[in-house]
Design brief:
Blueprint: H1 2-19, H2 21-25, H3 29-61, H4 89-92, H5 99-112, H6 116-127, H7 135-147, H8 166-177, H9 180-188, E1 198-201, H10 202-207, H11 213-224, E2 229-230, H12 235-238, H13 244-253, H14 262-272, H15 275-281, H16 284-287, E3 290-293, H17 299-334, E4 339-343, E5 360-362, E6 379-383
Antiparallel strand pairs: 1-3, 2-3, 4-5, 4-6
The structure holds zinc ion.
Length: 386
C-alpha cells in the first residue's frame, strides 16, 4: 500500500516538474515556479516513503528482539505476546506480559545484552510477581521429571515449591505494584529475599542502579509506604555501617567494654553516649544519609520468592543463549560460513542434547541449533569443510 502511494507521488511529481517547463518557456516565471514547487514536493514525499520503508526493513532483519505474534507450530504460541524470531520460539514464548514489560524487554535486550548480571537483574525487576506465563517451563519440567534428569541450569527450580506461603504471595504482590524504579532499586541491592533489611548510605543504594541521590530518596519514600524502607535512621541504626574496629575505637575512648557481638557493642554505645556527642564522633562515612531497604522475609516466604527468581534466571539464560545464536548466524553468514557444529557439555550429558553432539548443521537450519530446551548449555561453533 505504501509503495503504491510512493509510486503515485513520484509519478505525479515528475509530471508537475515536467509541465512546469511550459510556463518557463513562455516567460510565465511565477506559474513555472509554482508548478515546479508542487512537482518537487510530490517527488520528495514519494522518495521519503520509500527510504522510510527501507529503514524499517533493515531494522527487522537485525538481531533486535521482535514483539510479534508467533507463527510457530507450538499450540502455546498463539497466545504468546513476546517472541523472538529464532529457532525455538516455543522455548521462549512468554504470554501475559503488560505493555510496560514488553517495551522494557526490548530496551533491556538492546542495552544490556552482553552483560549477563545486569540483564538478569533487569529481568527480575521487570517480571517478579507479575502475571506472565511461560508455558514451556511447565512442559519441560514435566519432560525432565519423566526422564529423571534435570540439566544443570535447572538445579534451583527442579523442585516445585510444595506450598506457597501467604507471606510470599503478599511479598510478590507488593513487589509487582511498585514502580519500576523501586523494583530495580530493591533487586539491585539484593533486598528482596533477605531476613532483614539492608543498611547502606543512600548514595550507594542508588548508585548500583545508576540513580541520583535525590531520585533514590524519592523511591525510598515510595518504599516506606509498604514498610520496605526506612529513612532517616536513628543514630544507633547509622552505626551499623561502621566496621567493628571503628566501633571498638569509640568504646575505648569512652572506656566502655569492647566485648560482644557488633549489635551488642552498638547497643552499648548508643545507650552510654548522648546522641549529639555521638554524632560529632562519627566518621564522615557514617555521617552520610543512611537508609534501610528491603523486605524482611521469614524463611518459608523467602524460599518461594527465591524459587520465582530462579525461574526468571532460567528464562534469562535461555533468552541470552538464543540471542548469541542469532548474532553468530549473522556474523557467520557475513564471513561466508555454511555450517555449524553442535557442541554439547561433556560433564552434563543431557538426554535431549547428547544425540545432537557433534552434528553438523546448515547455518540456515535454525531449528537444528541450540538452545534445544530452557537452560540448554550446548553451543554451536563454525564448521569448516576442507
Ligand atoms: Zn540439553
Amino acid at each position: 500500500m505504501e509503495i503504491f502511494k510512493a509510486v503515485l507521488l513520484i509519478l505525479s511529481g515528475t509530471f508537475f516538474t515536467f509541465i512546469s517547463l511550459a510556463p518557463f518557456v513562455s516567460n510565465d516565471v511565477i506559474w513555472g515556479i509554482v508548478l515546479l514547487g508542487i512537482g518537487l514536493f510530490l517527488l520528495f514525499a514519494g522518495v521519503a516513503i520509500i527510504k522510510n520503508k527501507r529503514k524499517k526493513g533493515i531494522r527487522s532483519e537485525s538481531a533486535s528482539p521482535e514483539v510479534i505474534i508467533s507463527k510457530d507450530i507450538s499450540p502455546y504460541d498463539n497466545k504468546s505476546d513476546i517472541n523472538f524470531q529464532i529457532s525455538l520460539p516455543s522455548i521462549l514464548s512468554v504470554s501475559g506480559l503488560t505493555k510496560e514489560q514488553k517495551d522494557r524487554i526490548v530496551y533491556i535486550l538492546d542495552n544490556y545484552f552482553s552483560d549477563p548480571r545486569t540483564l538478569e537483574k533487569e529481568f527480575i525487576a521487570l517480571l517478579l510477581g507479575g502475571k506472565w506465563e511461560w508455558p514451556e517451563f511447565k512442559l519441560w519440567h514435566q519432560k525432565f521429571t519423566e526422564l529423571d534428569y534435570f540439566p544443570y541450569m535447572w538445579s534451583a527450580v527442579q523442585y516445585l515449591p510444595s506450598e506457597v506461603t501467604p507471606e510470599a504471595v503478599q511479598t510478590l504482590e507488593i513487589f509487582s505494584t511498585l514502580s519500576l524504579d523501586a523494583r530495580r532499586l530493591l533487586v539491585g541491592n539484593y533486598a528482596i529475599v533477605k531476613g532483614k533489611q539492608t543498611t547502606r548510605a543512600v548514595e550507594d543504594i542508588g548508585r548500583v542502579v545508576g540513580m541520583t541521590k535525590s531520585k533514590t530518596l524519592e523511591v525510598i519514600k515510595e518504599l516506606q509506604k509498604y514498610d520496605i524502607a526506612k529513612f532517616p535512621l536513628d543514630i544507633n541504626e547509622n552505626l551499623v555501617i561502621l566496621k567493628v574496629n571503628d566501633l571498638k575505637d569509640i568504646c575505648e575512648e569512652y572506656k566502655l567494654p569492647k566485648t560482644g557481638k557488633k549489635s551488642e557493642i552498638i547497643e552499648r554505645i548508643s545507650q552510654s553516649i548522648p546522641e549529639e556527642e555521638l554524632k560529632s564522633l562519627l566518621p564522615s562515612e557514617a555521617q552520610r544519609d543512611v537508609a534501610k531497604i528491603g523486605f524482611s522475609l521469614p524463611l518459608r516466604a523467602r524460599n518461594n520468592v527465591e524459587w520465582e527468581i530462579e525461574k526468571i534466571r532460567l528464562l534469562v539464560h535461555t533468552v541470552q543463549l538464543s540471542f548469541y545464536r542469532i548474532k553468530d548466524i549473522e556474523q557467520f553468514k557475513k564471513s561466508g560460513l555454511q555450517e555449524f557444529e553442535i557442541l554439547g557439555v561433556k560433564e552434563d550429558p543431557c538426554p535431549i542434547c547428547s544425540p545432537l553432539n557433534g552434528k553438523i548443521v546448515a547455518i540456515d537450519d535454525i531449528k537444528s541449533l541450540p538452545p534445544f530446551h530452557p537452560g540448554c548449555r550446548c553451543t554451536a561453533i563454525a564448521h569448516f569443510d576442507f
